[in-house]
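Transporter SVOPL structure dump, as promised
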Amino acid sequence: MDPELIQYRNTLNTITLEELKPQSNEAPKGHKTYTVEDAVETIGFGRFHIMLFLIMGSTGIAEAMEIMLLAIVSSSIRCEWHLEGWQVALVTMMVFFGYMIFSIVLGLLADRYGRLKILTISFMWGAFFSLLTSFAPSYIWFVFLRCMVGCGVSGHAQGLIIKTEFLPKKFRGYMLPLSQLFWLTGSLLIIGLGSVLIPTLGWRWLIRFASIPGIILILVFKFIPESARYHVSVGKDQAAMDTLRWIANINCSAMPEGTIKEPKAEKTGSVCDLFDRKYLRTSLQIWVIWLGISFAYYGAILASSELLERNLLCGSGQSDAIERDMPEESKSPCHCNMLSPSDYTTMLISTVGEIALNPFNILGINFLGRRWTLGITMATTGIFFLLLNICMSSSGLIAVLFCLRALVSANFNTVYIYTAEVYPTVMRAMGMGTSGSICRIGAMAAPFISQVLLSVSVTGAFCLFASVCFVCALSAFTLPIETRGRALQQVK
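structure tokens r here:
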């Protein structure tokens, strides 16, 4: 046979065999790869993370001022527009209604278009409508504009997600709970400003001052990059590598050798993914906990201002006696009881309680685990709600409110960390957004218990809060996944 023909046949066979070989997605032999988790752990904690902590942590200051504002101005708007209890409660409910609707929407958009973009847009939205609220000409306009503010505030959770995705795993259990310092700062600021501005310039100027931190943060977000985990989840590996190299330079650290190699997700997360067999039980139990924690947290805040404003120290008896002694024209559901300087002092002291348990909360999260810590603090919260049924002096009330605020704050700390860690990157913002949305159902119900039912039956209101806390404690103890020491998952 012709040698050239034999060579031609051999060439054809070689090509055919090469085509039949299975194609491998693996990197060529000898080519090193790493994951985002590997890079984050190799870079370690440094100057970038301190900057990240200060900037993203400050989102808590802005959020706390906008939310706590409701407890401070409630007595003022009640007087100005002659509102009944249910109308004051409706303001709080509509803020959380806006938060509930937009939490899911913004969570979905953050998984698709980026955490930082959604965070910036939400702050711009919130600051704009917050300023408009200070010019509200009527009660109806006030309710509508505060609802719009709630829509914007719902995106602030993206700051926590960005922090979580950049922090090495051994630092998450320490740095994330410390973010509570910023919420505490915002709460103290709004109470302090309220005590000065409301008696002098009025509640409208208080709202304007409360908008300032959000406006400042919009300007400083440019110093924080988009999450590298998000970039990888949407196939932008080079952008993720550039971000990680920039962080390594700031921290004076080394990067792993090679290139990023992560399993590619077919699509970004959706609500349906939360009902996937792997996460169904976790999602349902987390939602129960979020709803209950929010119900207890805002219930404690609003109940404290209501107890002080209406003198409900020993049930409804004192309130009735005080109303009997008031002038005839004030004996209406709309009569004015403005907060006194001593009331602001009491609120400041009880608010400081939010940080009191932080050292123990950090120890529990890192040594007992997220589930046990959350279960213990939720059960103890229920016990302290029951203690409010006991007739006590003003100093006794301050002590109980102090401990109660410490507990409800610790609950929020732990559930935020757990939720951010338990879901993979492709659905983390969706998981946080949905949880935040469910959470607002509890927040919407809280004012009707703290500001309406409480004036009818103190015992009924606090027993309801306690019962919800005990149910949440049981749900926390039985969560199927413990995230302590667990690497963040990239895909389902």
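The mean pLDDT is 80.
lmk if u need the other ones
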